[in-house]
Amino acid sequence: MMSLIIFGVLVILPIIITVIFRINGAVLFMSLCVGEVLVQYMAGDANSLITTISSIHGNQIANSTIRLILLLIPPVLTALFMFHSIPKGAKAILNVLPALGVGLLTALLVKPLLSSSYQRTLEHSNLWHQFSQAQALVVGTGAVLSLLFLWFQRQGSHEHGHSSKHHS
Fold it and tell me: I need a labelling partner for 7 at 20 to 30 A (CA). Which of 14, 74, 127, 133 fits?
């Protein structure tokens, strides 16, 4: 039961935030990818810097926290800057697809940064096992949906801008 709650929070919370606040899910998905790049390339240096200037030496919790912050800074800033960036209507409904990708990718990327007890709880659930088997599908589909959403948004704004030039 606890694994279902953890999994639900990791997946559903980003979806709800994206949909309710009409944040562009495609840009949010890409921001989460940027966060993962920051984790991969900056976490070690950031951890060294923090341990140098603080009294926390070699603390695994501090390293995990730094990695979690690096992962979540880009999507949190994106959410703040892109608040209500999707108009109501058809685009808002279509935004659910990249929002789903955001939720699923969040679960995949946050799980390794959780405490070992939460990680074990998730790993022992059948739901997580099935989900982790589909991680390539989650990432690939989320990326393709996000790119399509961005491309179609661009096309729609270009056509709108083009039609207003005819009226000038």
Answer: 74
